[in-house]
Amino acid sequence: MASGDAFDLDVAIVGGGPAGLATAAALLRAVPGVRLKVFEAAPAYREQGAGVLVQANGGRALEALDPRIMHRLVSVGTITSGMVPYNDTTGEKLPWVNGKNPMADLDAMGYANVLVLWNDIRRTLYDALPPGTVQFGSRVVEVAAPEPEPEGGDGGEGKDGHKQQPAQGCFTLRIADTGDAAAPLAAVRARHVVAADGYFSRTRRAFDGEAGLPAFHRTVLWRGSLSREEVAAAGSRLPDALNPALNPEGLRCTHFWSPATADKPPTGPPPRGIMLFPAGPLDPDTTASGLEGDAARIVWNVFFSVEDEAAADEADGKPLADRSIHTAGKQGGAALARCLAANTHLPEDLRALLAASPPERVTEHGLYKHPLEGFIKGAWARGRLVLLGDAAHTAPPDGQGVNLSLEDAVVLGALVRAHGLGPQAFSEWEAARQPRIAAILGDPTPQGSIRMPLIRNAAFEPLWSAEGLEAAGSLPPDVAAEARQAAAEAAAAAAEAEGEAAAEAAAAAERKAVLAWSRGEVRSLVLAKLEGRNLLVSGPRPDGMYLIR
Ligand SMILES: Cc1cc2nc3c(=O)[nH]c(=O)nc-3n(C[C@H](O)[C@H](O)[C@H](O)COP(=O)(O)OP(=O)(O)OC[C@H]3O[C@@H](n4cnc5c(N)ncnc54)[C@H](O)[C@@H]3O)c2cc1C
Which of 2, 9, 71, 510 falls 20 to 30 Å from 136 in CA-CA distance? Predict the structure, then answer.
């Protein structure tokens, strides 16, 4: 961001992670013409060694933003067919397999879980935004609340949402140019602020101090990734479990090593573990990626329980100076060295894989979570400020962090469309989100029997119209024509009814036609990935068994 830049905005979004980017896309759909910017501290997006599972709820949320965003992610993602467990000292394969049947998922949900590189989510959302929406290298260092509203002011701005607002009603954000320490701070005035600045949200701290911080989850996590070429270039080889020559399904499963043994399955979260899974197109030559710089990756996560934050850091005695996910702990060679030092028990082929990882993609950080008791009125929505994504509800890395952030964005978009930008939409959003997120993150059952139906049956109001999608090039012309025809027929059938009912019937018919096309596309993409491939047979999983909850 050039020093001295000044913006007057309807909405300033702090943080360009998945939550901030998806919210930008949702608000641009909900309030056409809204003056909005995303301020992102990082100078650019770069791949970090992380992959995420886009589950049905995240996929549906992306679809509600724009079906093409989801299709693009599905096309670069990997469909795995289950989790294979091993003992983490002997390497012995354990007798239960947490098998998944992507075909059954497709039939039941019209969707199958897709593993993608975490950065690909950001890149795909970023590419869907108008150029210039994201201001990189812009760290928000201060957010000052607006003057109190004049008498009778501010129930929301009405559906246009972007009319000129009086200056006294604006937040003031001070923004540092992270690429130029000597640059003067830029000031931005914004009528609304969306805090999407991650789990140690500076915006949240500005209003709540330490009280808004998440609690340490007694776990240290290392993440990294590497391609098969990088494994070979390091003079290493794939671990036997992943080696297609030894195990044809090896690169199509998730693999999980823990201290469990065949006669001692885990009955609670294991104290340590390592998970390996493929992400990104397995074969970049035959799978159209469309994303520059993509390559198939083997992603690894290693976690280790510790007593407290001090223990997490005792290896080198330095306190965690700034507990933001990006600066906590270590990254690079130091993180990799600590990971190897803390995990000497692992079988040699796994250690060799970790050691071969490019250090620039290795991160280490402590895990934190916002206690569910803090999910109370006013915690996430305060007048014209709203906190979402990890800034509101950081969760352990059990697969829902990204998915819930995407949900946050589309639910907010739908409420803003209904009520206009402002406190009413924000507080209704909070009231809708807190019980659902608490139910998903707080599910005490080992099998996830509360959370899984909520995830699988997630449904969101689409933020698009067929016309808008067509104009944006997101809808093939024949599908647009079909949708128009379906709408016209539905409107004619409802002609007897009141005008509004006919319009609603037409909109519903149009949506149905677009969704049928969208889900057909997902099905073809998934089937193409599954073609010719055996699915794992699910083995009986011991009762009460946890993986990484
Ligand atoms: C490196 C990494 C790996 C992850 N891996 C996984 C995974 O494997 N599985 C999983 O489920 N979840 C993972 N997560 C967590 C998951 O990505 C989050 O739950 C999800 O991304 C929530 O998104 P968010 O946008 O709220 O927060 P984040 O993804 O943390 O994004 C916050 C953004 O805000 C920016 N920011 C922070 N402070 C400021 C500021 N003051 N001014 C401007 N910008 C600021 C940050 O640079 C960042 O881009 C990972 C997160 C990170 C950072």
Answer: 71
Indicate which residue's Cα is closest to atom 14 of ligand 1: 401
User: Which of 52, 199, 386 most suits a substitution to test ligand 1, by most atoms within 8 Å of the C-beta?
Assistant: 52
Strand locations in 46-112 (E): 51-54, 82-87, 98-99
Q: Which of 43-57, 213-227, 400-414 has the highest mean pLDDT?
A: 400-414
Contact present, 289 and 207 (Cβ < 8 Å): no
Does any ligand 1 atom lie closer than 6 A to the CB of residue 17? yes
**Ligand 1 within 6 A of CB of 38:** no
Question: Of the candidates 326, 404, 372, which has an alpha carbon nearest to the alpha carbon of residue 215?
Answer: 372
Give the range with max mean pLDDT: 239-253, 287-301, 528-542.
Answer: 239-253
Ligand 1 centroid from CA 188, angstroms? 23
Ligand 1, atom 7: closest residue by C-alpha: 52
235's tokens? 């003079």
Would you say residue 3 has pLDDT above 50? no
Query: What pTM was computed for the model?
Result: 0.89
